[in-house]
Write a structure and sequence with these properties.
Helix 2 links the parallel strand 3 and strand 4. The protein is α/β, with parallel strands linked by helices. The two termini are 23 Å apart. The radius of gyration is 20 Å and the shape is globular. The protein has one domain: Rossmann fold (3-Layer(aba) Sandwich). It has eight helices and nine strands. Helix 2 packs across helix 3 and helix 4 packs across helix 5. Bound molecules: S-adenosylmethionine. S-adenosylmethionine binds next to strand 9.
Length: 307
């Protein structure tokens, strides 16, 4: 039997437990999107709730156990995202490739360590994207604004005579994500050092689920996946060994809602409001672009939360 959830919201349930004790209770073929950001076996201190420095083979065998469960609970066409160091996603990707269909290895450009002697400077995390079956049931990637100078709003690339041909909804998302900011959270002491940016989860949840879809994250951390799901109108199931940071975060969810609303004004369009202001100020002509919809407020239905 499932334990009583630690927290329930309008859309989600959070279990404070080992994910391997909860996942077998989730019925097969019911989840639209799984996002998993496990500990990386780097010897970090996670309040001694588990050992983050085990022999490599043990770490991989442990990952395979919960990955098997995640594959089982996915719906046909459902999506699985696995965030990890390239070192681990290489063997785990090969493991998943026998069960799911590979879509992308997304490089998330974040420097995660100091330079290491005699090695290249590690500068990206791997975000593996697999689906169950041949075709994704849901796939609507966000489009991004043109890259512009943060001081004057001028284009970083020269679009020459093609300005009027550009999609007013923005440029295609690629499999290299350069625009994910690091997280600063000095204000909330309980938040975990490895919290991911809400911008990353907004992008994943928006791309591979619809309002009303079911999202699952077995390694909740500070609850970024759950906050994104709740605010974007997705149902969710979350698991975390030590969940007080998540409960505290939901008590202050309006701050995440404000950030998400700001993100919504800066995607699926050619220019962000800030770059449009700068362009005007510094006299960069914008009239050749088609800017349909740039003045409209995005259609973002942030859902009220009940705890
Ligand atoms: C890398 S963090 C996840 C961070 C999260 N994506 C965020 O944005 O805040 C991994 C989390 O997994 C939790 N964890 C480790 N082993 C677990 C297990 N067996 N079951 C559930 N949670 C676990 C840790 O407590 C840690 O908070």
């Amino acid at each position: 039997m499932l334990p009583i959830p630690k927290m329930e919201t309008q859309r989600g349930k959070l279990y404070e437990a080992d994910c391997l004790s909860i996942l077998p209770h989730i019925p097969a073929g019911t989840v639209d999107l799984v996002f998993a950001d496990p500990p990386f076996n780097l010897g970090k201190d996670y309040n001694s709730k588990f050992n983050d420095a085990v022999p490599e083979q043990n770490y991989l065998l442990w990952c395979e156990k919960w990955l098997d469960e995640l594959v089982r609970v996915l719906r046909p066409g459902g999506a699985l995202f696995l965030f990890n160091l390239p070192k681990w996603n290489l063997p785990l990707g090969a493991f998943l490739g026998k069960k799911l269909t590979f879509r992308h290895w997304i490089s998330v450009d974040i420097k995660y360590s100091l330079p290491i002697p005699k090695r290249l400077y590690p500068s990206h995390y791997s975000l593996l994207y697999f689906i169950k079956g041949d075709k994704p049931a849901i796939f609507h990637p966000d489009r991004l604004p043109i890259k512009t100078c943060t001081h004057c709003g001028k284009e970083a690339n020269d679009y020459g005579g093609y300005k009027d041909k550009m999609n007013p909804a923005g440029v295609n998302l690629t499999d290299v994500w350069y625009d994910i900011p690091p997280v600063r959270h000095a204000k909330y002491k309980k938040r975990k050092a490895n919290e991911l940016s809400l911008k990353l989860l907004d992008r994943v949840v928006s791309m591979a689920s619809d309002p009303g879809s079911l999202v699952l994250d077995p390694f909740g951390g500070s609850g970024t996946t759950f906050v994104a799901s709740e605010l974007l109108g997705r149902n969710w199931v979350g698991i975390e060994l030590e969940s007080s940071a998540i409960v505290e975060r939901f008590e202050n969810i309006n701050e995440d809602a404000d950030y998400l609303a700001k993100l919504a004004t800066s995607k699926n369009r050619l220019f962000t409001p800030d770059s449009l202001k700068l362009r005007k100020k510094f006299g960069h002509d914008t009239s050749k672009y088609r800017l349909n919809g740039h003045l409209e407020k995005p259609d973002l239905k942030l859902q009220p939360v009940l705890i």
